[in-house]
């Protein structure tokens, strides 16, 4: 959380790493990973570097934000695509960064906040973190936590698991009274 002095001066979070996994059906057809040079707040805080385990040099050598927007626009050609994220912050930050840079938001299609879908599907009261959710499925996350591409691949993996569970739930028929009560035992007791 930024301190009050930074907020008062117009601080907003900038994208410093992008990770993208493009899938068609159940196959990943393209991945992309890059650091992104922050322009409004180019110097990373010590807390940020420690938390993300990155160095200033990595973002300094990263992609310029307008280049990232162009890449996202190229990948977002189809109107009927689905953009899946874990939480809504990625899209909020991307929108804000586009506004600040005077660029058009590059993504189109349906947007799914998988953390909310997961919460609703499993009836959780609170949102579950990405890596906790994958562990709840008895799986491991891909790569390292808080690395953009690894988180994107882990999100894709959980998306497939949740979709399979939803499909299974649609197919299963509600139990009949005969499924719930063994009438032969009941009849034997009455005889």
From TrEMBL:
Q: Which GO terms describe its molecular function?
A: 3'-5'-RNA exonuclease activity; nucleic acid binding
Query: Keywords assigned by UniProt?
Result: Exonuclease, Hydrolase, Nuclease
Question: Does the keyword Secreted feature in the UniProt annotation?
Answer: no
Entry keyword Membrane? no
- Residue intervals of the Exonuclease domain: 7-168
Tell me the SMART domains matching this sequence: EXOIII
State the source organism's domain of life.
Bacteria
| One Pfam family recorded for the sequence | RNase_T
The cross-references to InterPro entries, in alphabetical order and at most eight, read: 3-5_Exoribonuclease (IPR051274), ERI-1_3'hExo-like (IPR047201), Ribonucl_H (IPR013520), RNaseH-like_sf (IPR012337), RNaseH_sf (IPR036397)
Task: Please give the name of this protein.
Answer: Or 3'-5' exonuclease KapD
